[in-house]
Amino acid sequence: MPRVCFTLQVDPDRLDEYRARHTRVWPEMLAALAESGWHDYSLFLREDGLLVGYLVTDDFAAAQAAMQTSDVNARWQAEMAPYFVGLDQGAADRAIRPLDEVFNLEAQLSAERETRLAAETGDTP
Q1: pTM of the model
Q2: What strands, in cross-sheet order, belong to the sheet with 39-45?
Q3: Pair type for strands 50-56 and 39-45
Q4: Which of 13, 17, 22, 90 is catalytic?
Q5: Considering only CA atoms, which of 66, 67, 85 is closest in space to residue 77?
Q6: Statement: residue 55 has pLDDT above 80
Q7: Within a 10 A sphere around the Cβ of 63, how many other Cβ atoms?
Q8: What's the pLDDT at 125?
Q9: Predicted confidence (pLDDT) per residue in 76-104, tens digit
């Protein structure tokens, strides 16, 4: 299942508020994310406001589109927008630009195992 990572910028003057808002996210927002295909979703926040998001999903575009149709997401995004700086589209979820994955340990270990197994059995990977 593909992994998605992205960054956003939280206003450094509002970090404590931002953290507090995420200690108990609305249950209906949690359900909407899960039902829309956002799995293993985590947010990481640095002291200067750099926010790094990570999730696993079958189809990120479809997962984003599903959230765009959700009323709870519209309410959440409206409440969270003031915490961010530099939003070019007014809502954090619309500003997400996935990063390119350039290294994955498990993928390379798996490829190495396949190559080694192929060499041992005389098959070509």
Answers
A1: 0.86
A2: 3-9, 50-56, 39-45
A3: antiparallel
A4: 22
A5: 67
A6: yes
A7: 20
A8: 57
A9: 999 999 999 988 767 899 899 999 999 99
Q: To which residue do tokens 């490829």 refer?
A: 111
Report residue 40 CA to chain centroid gap: 9
How many residues appear in the chain? Answer: 125
Exposed, middle or buried, 119 (CB in 10 Å: 0-12/13-18/19+)? Answer: exposed
Both ends of the chain: CA-CA distance in Å? Answer: 21
pLDDT of residue 61: 95
Is 22 a catalytic site residue? yes
**SS3 of the chain:** CCEEEEEEEECHHHHHHHHHHCCCCCHHHHHHHHHCCCEEEEEEECCCCEEEEEEECCCHHHHHHHHHCCHHHHHHHHHHHHHECCCCCCCHHHHCCCCCCCCCHHHHHHHHHHHHHHHHHCCCC
Structure tokens at 8: 């956003």
Q: What is the pLDDT of residues 102-117, one digit of tens each?
A: 999 999 999 999 988 8
